[in-house]
Design goal:
The protein is of the alpha/beta class and about 280 residues long. It folds into 2 domains: about 140 residues, Rossmann fold (3-Layer(aba) Sandwich); about 130 residues, Rossmann fold. Helices cover about 30% and strands about 20% of the residues. A 7-stranded parallel β-sheet has the order 3-2-1-4-5-6-7, with helices on one face. The longest helix is centred in the first third of the chain and has 15 residues. The mean pLDDT is about 95.
């Protein structure tokens, strides 16, 4: 059994859950028995919408062995401090993979790293996008904005002068506060529910987002993508986004976003490939 732990919640959103669902869907299609571990039921419901059949909630990264048995394999997709638990995991489990925290991260106890610049046999590529985004659909003309699944610090409201400059539609995040929508509807032409995520990402002509996972999904779907690089934790480095011809706007820069929105979109060769599971399946 392979367990995938994806850190989730109202402060960190669902990026790791989306990445985990993408990988587990591929592995399930290959006959690998898997189990997704998340931190809350909302993340589990989102994972089901993305094709994951079952999930289990755990408190933190330190609780993986409350579910997984010795001899199983685990993947850790989390920036949390494991408080030394990783030592035990590497001793008890058959395989331990974890996603790098940044480019300077190194394996400490023999675990194998998922890396954004993996060029060797002792690591795994961290860029994983679900195959549903490989099927490009006819686009509907809209500029869709998706900050991410969480806006705990109310970045949108705190930068309302920025959003008032544009006619964008908003895809709400799964963790947005209940009464938040009343304020947001004054800044966007339309508000879309989180359940419409896959439809809107695959069908929208232009997508502005501060979620790096969404940026890659939208790019693969054939949309014009602009990544809003704000002060938040991202699961992929900006350099990887640039490598895949995704335009970058640093901060809430009105003029920069206007410039990119006005530019004609020229489709370039897609460099994103369906994730190769060989390094994982061969070790199970």
């Amino acid at each position: 059994m392979l367990f995938y732990y994806a850190n989730s919640g109202h402060k960190v959103g669902l990026e790791r859950v989306r990445r985990g669902a993408a990988l587990l869907n591929i592995l399930e299609s290959q006959g690998v028995e898997t189990q997704l571990l998340v931190n809350d039921f909302r993340a589990g419901l989102a994972a089901r919408d993305l094709g994951v059949k079952e999930y289990v909630t755990v408190e933190t990264v330190q609780d993986i062995d409350a579910i997984a048995d010795a001899g199983n394999s685990i993947i850790i997709d989390s920036p949390e401090d494991d408080h030394g638990r990783l030592v035990k995991y590497c001793a008890d489990f058959k395989n331990v993979w974890r996603f790098e925290h940044d480019s300077s991260d190194r394996s400490v106890h023999g675990e194998i790293l998922f890396k954004s610049d993996c060029l060797a046999d002792d690591c795994v590529d961290s860029l994983i996008v679900d195959e549903i985004f490989f099927d490009q659909k006819i686009k509907e003309e809209r500029v869709l904005f998706f900050l991410g699944d969480a806006d705990y610090n109310k970045n949108i409201l705190n930068n309302k002068t920025f959003f008032q400059e544009f006619d964008m539609e908003l895809l709400l995040g799964s963790y947005f506060f209940v009464k938040y929508e009343n304020d947001l509807e004054k800044l966007f032409t339309t508000l879309h529910e989180p359940e419409d995520y896959v439809y809107l990402v695959t069908k929208s002509s232009t997508i502005v987002t501060s979620s790096s996972q969404t940026a890659f999904e939208a790019k693969l779907s054939g949309a014009k993508v602009i990544y809003l690089n704000i002060d938040n934790e991202t699961i992929y480095p900006v350099s990887l986004l640039e490598k895949h011809n995704i335009d970058i706007v640093n901060g809430f820069d009105i003029e920069a976003l206007k410039m990119y929105l006005k530019q004609d979109y020229i489709k370039k060769e897609n460099k994103i490939k369906l994730f190769d599971t060989q390094k994982i399946t061969s070790a199970l």
